[in-house]
């Protein structure tokens, strides 16, 4: 990745300093990831929940992003670990263009493209893009991207025993030389020196032996903002898991999500790290397990060590699946006229967007249980057999390429009606030839139109795919029976009108309605009536 020089990022305005210091003083987790504090007397920047002794206010500078603090010459704290702070959802970004740009950068756009190509993708000039980043985030686009890569590298150095070369590659650096240079520039020590200074208790326990096929695992953590209803989220997923592909263990003593992982190993650009990937298979298979570290406000991710080449993609998908960038304090006030039963609700995402889309199509006009039974048949008939330590996990879900090569009769033999077979193959062809891209960086309106142009995919299915596969926070299912029942109207226009008060968080309103929230119409409006 190319570098560019920018002036030192400015800290946040004086008006916010007092409020931020109070949040730092109380270690208020609602602000975790929303700002960072740099301490001039130590040269270190921290999360607002850092357990270290409270610094004097005159020694504190507050920054909007970790990148801005790092660019101003501060090093990340080794106690609170800024790399574990929850991020911001796209809807929380101060500017729509910045939101879209950050999503693209976070998904590695600048690892393969230039600033000019990024700005062209957004429909603005590169100068305006740099200006927006400097104003809203305090850094240039390249410095923002580099800091993201370095924080990921810090996490992998601390939490795994992966070779430094592998970490450089997984963090998105074009060469080991550029990785070492940028790491030392930011942290005043080489990656190897950083690893050697770690206390023994901080070093990875990834060499834990099992009696299973997988003798090694990797363990990583991802932070979140409370409240976080982990059990409620798993309860929702447990009713929709695809047997053989994923499982949920949920009882009085356990709350664990597990699944088979199959990820295509993306080709590297021409770099001196390309040879490190030359012998990798086209698709990498493995497994993962996710549990909650409640007292630390983190999820613990355990995965088979053969997923190391795609560990960055795994972490992105886990973050999306469990909605870890959600800020409940931003959403709850918007749920007007809803008597909520769960303030820690999250929007369940998807680990694999195609898998979720097929699952959504199968769920049309049949029960949730019937849909996941048929989805399991699809996985066992056309997916890859995968060995895992868990008896209930045995197959990957077939990818779009595999499904697109099937004859309709092959799907029909599994109990799928002809209309659903047509819809499944249509979306498989569209994804395989890249007519449709189901990613969190996709243009939402365009994607909804493309989905609904396919046979057998209507408004409900398209909105459900947007809500879960794309992580769109403002989807609204006005044809959903649960929503209709909860809001007391079958009139789509009336339901859309009611939903406007929940924008841009209507997906969360739908989840609250599904989980039993009561809608209380405002007295100045007419009561909904059946149409």
TrEMBL record:
One GO cellular component term: cytoplasm
Native source organism of the sequence: Pelagibaculum spongiae
Protein name: DNA-3-methyladenine glycosylase II
Keyword tRNA processing: no
A GO molecular-function descriptor: zinc ion binding
InterPro entries assigned: Ada-like_dom_sf (IPR035451), Ada_DNA_repair_Zn-bd (IPR004026), AlkA_N (IPR010316), AlkA_N_sf (IPR037046), Alkylbase_DNA_Glycosylase/TA (IPR051912), DNA_glycosylase (IPR011257), HhH-GPD_domain (IPR003265), HhH_base_excis_C (IPR023170)
EC numbers for this chain: 3.2.2.21
Class in the EC hierarchy, top level: hydrolase
Superkingdom of origin organism: Bacteria
GO terms classed as biological process: base-excision repair, AP site formation; DNA alkylation repair; methylation
Keyword tags: Activator, DNA damage, DNA repair, DNA-binding, Metal-binding, Methyltransferase, Transcription, Transcription regulation, Transferase, Zinc
Catalytic activity: Hydrolysis of alkylated DNA, releasing 3-methyladenine, 3-methylguanine, 7-methylguanine and 7-methyladenine
Listed cofactors: Zn(2+)
Keyword Glycosyltransferase in annotation: no
Domain HTH araC/xylS-type: 99-197
Any Pfam family hit: HhH-GPD
């Amino acid at each position: 990745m190319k570098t560019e020089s920018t002036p030192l990022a400015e800290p946040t305005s004086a008006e916010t300093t007092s409020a931020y210091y109070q949040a730092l003083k109380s270690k208020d987790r609602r602000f975790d990831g929303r700002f960072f504090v740099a301490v001039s007397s130590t040269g270190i920047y921290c999360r607002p929940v850092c357990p270290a002794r409270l610094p004097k206010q005159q020694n504190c500078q507050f920054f909007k992003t970790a990148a801005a603090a790092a660019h101003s010459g501060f090093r990340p704290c080794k106690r609170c670990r800024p790399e574990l702070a929850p991020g911001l959802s796209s809807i929380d970004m101060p500017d729509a263009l910045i939101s879209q740009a950050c999503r693209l950068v976070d998904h590695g756009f600048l690892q393969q493209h230039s600033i000019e190509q990024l700005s062209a993708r957004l429909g603005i000039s590169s100068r305006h893009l740099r200006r927006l980043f400097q104003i809203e985030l305090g850094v240039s686009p390249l410095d923002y991207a580099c800091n993201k890569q370095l924080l990921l590298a810090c996490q992998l150095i601390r939490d795994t025993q992966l070779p430094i070369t592998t970490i450089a590659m997984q963090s998105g650096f074009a060469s080991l030389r550029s990785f070492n240079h940028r790491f030392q520039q930011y942290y005043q020590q080489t990656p190897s020196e950083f690893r050697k200074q770690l206390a023994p208790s901080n070093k990875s326990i990834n060499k834990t032996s099992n009696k299973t096929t997988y003798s090694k695992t990797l363990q990583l953590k991802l932070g979140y903002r409370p409240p976080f209803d982990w059990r409620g989220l798993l309860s929702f997923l447990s009713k929709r898991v695809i047997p053989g592909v994923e499982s949920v263990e949920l009882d009085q003593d356990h709350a664990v999500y597990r699944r088979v992982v199959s990820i295509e190993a993306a080709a590297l650009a021409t770099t001196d790290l390309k040879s490190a990937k030359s012998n990798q298979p086209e698709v990498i298979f493995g497994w993962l397990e996710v549990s909650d570290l409640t007292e630390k406000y983190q999820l613990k991710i355990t995965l088979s060590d053969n997923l190391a080449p795609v560990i960055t993609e795994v972490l992105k998908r886990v973050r999306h699946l469990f909605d870890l960038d959600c800020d409940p304090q931003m959403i709850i006030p918007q749920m007007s006229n809803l008597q909520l039963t769960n303030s820690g609700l999250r929007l369940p995402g998807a680990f694999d967007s195609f898998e979720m889309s097929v699952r959504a199509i199968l769920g049309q006009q049949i029960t949730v249980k019937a849909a996941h039974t048929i989805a399991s048949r699809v996985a066992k008939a056309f997916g890859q057999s995968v060995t895992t330590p868990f008896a209930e996990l045995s197959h990957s879900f077939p990818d779009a390429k595999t499904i697109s090569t099937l004859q309709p009769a092959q799907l029909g033999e599994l109990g799928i009606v002809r209309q659903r077979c047509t819809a499944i193959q249509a979306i498989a062809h569209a994804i395989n030839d890249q007519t449709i891209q189901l990613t969190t960086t996709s243009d939402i309106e365009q994607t909804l139109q493309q989905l609904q142009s396919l046979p057998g995919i209507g408004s409900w299915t398209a909105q459900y795919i947007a809500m879960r596969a794309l992580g769109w926070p403002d989807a609204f299912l006005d044809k959903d029976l649960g929503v209709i029942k909860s809001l007391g109207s079958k009139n789509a226009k009336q339901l859309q009108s009611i939903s406007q008060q929940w924008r841009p968080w209507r997906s969360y309103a739908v989840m609250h309605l599904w989980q039993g929230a009561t809608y209380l119409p405002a007295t100045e409006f007419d009561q909904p009536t059946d149409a």
